[in-house]
Amino acid sequence: MPETDAGTWVRCPACGVVMTVPSESTPVLATAPSQVENEVLSYASKVPASPMDSFVAAQAFIPEKLRSPGKPACYLVLITRGAEVNASFDITPVINALAAAFAKKVRKQYDVQIVAKAPEGSPCAVIRIAQIDEGNRFLRYFLSLLAGKTVLKITGHVRGASGKETLFQETHKGAIGIAGGAGINLLKTSAKVLGARIGKKALK
């Protein structure tokens, strides 16, 4: 695609996943899995997902106000390979909300850096986006808590300063909002909840 399309989103005609068109100068999250990432993917094998050769390309960053220069680094690896995505919008803001919430939770102790692969033995959080579903706003509006919920599901691996490693699988659903709630807003809320939750695990 031409460089002028950078930042726009497209749905893959083959697998149906939603992806953001990256610029040539900006790295994306779709990378070859490391050994730790393979462990996460193996752990997540029970989670329904698209074929593992599919991916969602999304740019991610930590806002400068949430960085902590001078603090020890905590590496954040975001995996989107095999993500099951049902969304009619660019899901990049959801991933960024997840990263920002994680950084905000740990910034008093760590300077969070997004990388493709965390150095061995270093504090890190490897988060795989397993599922993003915008649900059905019509059903949320008319049936409230009964149907149409948004879903954000992540799996992963956290390693704290003590070296303790913990696998996790977390899900958050959104159901309440004005006129049923916009899917993107409910998913960003879920991302903030889960990002903070994983940040708490990283501090142990």
Report on this model:
The chain is of the alpha/beta class. It is 25% helix and 25% strand. It is built from 4 helices and 8 strands; from the N terminus they run ββαββαββαββα. Strands 3, 4, 5, 6, 7 and 8 form a 6-stranded mixed sheet that branches. Strands 1-2 form a two-stranded antiparallel sheet. Helix 2 packs parallel to helix 4 (183-202). It is elongated.
What key phrases describe this protein's structure?
204 residues, six-stranded mixed sheet, two-stranded antiparallel sheet, 8 strands, 25% strand, elongated
List strands and helices in order, with pairings:
Blueprint: E1 9-11, E2 18-20, H1 35-43, E3 73-79, E4 84-86, H2 92-106, E5 111-114, E6 124-133, H3 137-143, E7 150-159, E8 165-174, H4 183-202
Parallel strand pairs: 3-5, 3-6, 4-6
Antiparallel strand pairs: 1-2, 6-7, 7-8
Beta-strand level of the residues, as a percent range? 15-25%
Shape type: elongated
What's the domain count? 1
List segments where confidence is low: pLDDT < 50 over at least 5 consecutive residues: 25-37, 43-57
> What level of helicity do the residues show?
25-40%
Element-by-element helix/strand order: EEHEEHEEHEEH
